[in-house]
Protein backbone atom coordinates (compact mmCIF):
# COMPACT_ATOMS: atom_id res chain seq x y z
CA UNK A 1 0.00 0.00 0.00
CA UNK A 2 1.40 3.40 -0.92
CA UNK A 3 1.92 6.16 1.63
CA UNK A 4 -0.96 8.09 0.04
CA UNK A 5 -3.27 5.06 0.40
CA UNK A 6 -2.25 4.60 4.02
CA UNK A 7 -3.00 8.27 4.76
CA UNK A 8 -6.39 8.04 3.02
CA UNK A 9 -7.26 4.91 5.02
CA UNK A 10 -6.25 6.64 8.26
CA UNK A 11 -8.36 9.68 7.34
CA UNK A 12 -11.38 7.42 6.73
CA UNK A 13 -10.83 5.72 10.07
CA UNK A 14 -10.69 9.04 11.94
CA UNK A 15 -13.36 10.95 10.02
CA UNK A 16 -16.23 12.30 12.10
CA UNK A 17 -19.71 11.02 11.31
CA UNK A 18 -22.26 13.46 9.89
CA UNK A 19 -24.71 12.91 12.74
CA UNK A 20 -25.57 10.73 15.71
CA UNK A 21 -27.91 8.71 13.51
CA UNK A 22 -25.29 8.12 10.83
CA UNK A 23 -22.79 7.08 13.52
CA UNK A 24 -25.26 4.57 14.94
CA UNK A 25 -26.01 3.17 11.48
CA UNK A 26 -22.31 2.81 10.70
CA UNK A 27 -21.69 1.19 14.08
CA UNK A 28 -24.49 -1.32 13.49
CA UNK A 29 -23.05 -2.13 10.06
CA UNK A 30 -19.59 -2.65 11.58
CA UNK A 31 -20.97 -4.98 14.23
CA UNK A 32 -22.90 -6.96 11.62
CA UNK A 33 -19.77 -7.22 9.48
CA UNK A 34 -17.63 -8.32 12.41
CA UNK A 35 -20.17 -11.04 13.23
CA UNK A 36 -19.63 -12.60 9.81
CA UNK A 37 -16.97 -15.24 9.39
CA UNK A 38 -14.00 -14.72 7.13
CA UNK A 39 -12.78 -11.25 8.00
CA UNK A 40 -9.04 -11.03 8.38
CA UNK A 41 -7.38 -9.93 11.58
CA UNK A 42 -6.24 -6.61 10.08
CA UNK A 43 -9.79 -5.77 8.97
CA UNK A 44 -11.19 -6.75 12.37
CA UNK A 45 -8.74 -4.43 14.12
CA UNK A 46 -9.53 -1.61 11.70
CA UNK A 47 -13.27 -2.10 12.23
CA UNK A 48 -12.79 -2.25 16.00
CA UNK A 49 -10.86 1.04 16.00
CA UNK A 50 -13.53 2.71 13.87
CA UNK A 51 -16.23 1.32 16.15
CA UNK A 52 -14.46 2.69 19.22
CA UNK A 53 -14.32 6.14 17.61
CA UNK A 54 -18.02 5.94 16.75
CA UNK A 55 -18.95 4.90 20.29
CA UNK A 56 -16.96 7.84 21.69
CA UNK A 57 -18.64 10.21 19.23
CA UNK A 58 -22.10 8.95 20.24
CA UNK A 59 -21.34 9.22 23.96
CA UNK A 60 -19.97 12.74 23.55
CA UNK A 61 -22.97 13.80 21.45
CA UNK A 62 -25.42 12.39 23.99
CA UNK A 63 -23.63 14.30 26.75
CA UNK A 64 -23.90 17.51 24.71
CA UNK A 65 -27.62 16.95 24.24
CA UNK A 66 -28.09 16.26 27.96
CA UNK A 67 -26.42 19.59 28.74
CA UNK A 68 -28.61 21.39 26.19
CA UNK A 69 -31.74 19.85 27.71
CA UNK A 70 -30.63 20.93 31.22
CA UNK A 71 -30.13 24.49 29.96
CA UNK A 72 -33.55 24.51 28.30
CA UNK A 73 -35.21 23.16 31.43
CA UNK A 74 -33.40 25.72 33.60
CA UNK A 75 -34.59 28.49 31.28
CA UNK A 76 -38.16 27.21 31.43
CA UNK A 77 -37.99 26.98 35.21
CA UNK A 78 -36.75 30.56 35.53
CA UNK A 79 -39.44 31.78 33.08
CA UNK A 80 -42.12 30.02 35.16
CA UNK A 81 -40.94 31.57 38.40
CA UNK A 82 -38.79 28.67 39.50
CA UNK A 83 -41.45 25.96 39.27
CA UNK A 84 -40.18 23.38 36.71
CA UNK A 85 -43.52 21.51 36.53
From TrEMBL:
Its EC number is 3.1.11.6. It is found in: Cytoplasm. It is an enzyme of class 3 (hydrolase). It catalyses: Exonucleolytic cleavage in either 5'- to 3'- or 3'- to 5'-direction to yield nucleoside 5'-phosphates. Keywords: Cytoplasm, Exonuclease, Hydrolase, Nuclease. Its main location: cytoplasm. Coiled coil: none annotated. GO terms for molecular function: exodeoxyribonuclease VII activity. Transmembrane segments: none annotated. The keyword Nucleus does not apply. Belongs to the XseB family. Heterooligomer composed of large and small subunits. Bidirectionally degrades single-stranded DNA into large acid-insoluble oligonucleotides, which are then degraded further into small acid-soluble oligonucleotides. HAMAP family: Exonuc_7_S. PANTHER family: EXODEOXYRIBONUCLEASE 7 SMALL SUBUNIT. This is Exodeoxyribonuclease 7 small subunit.
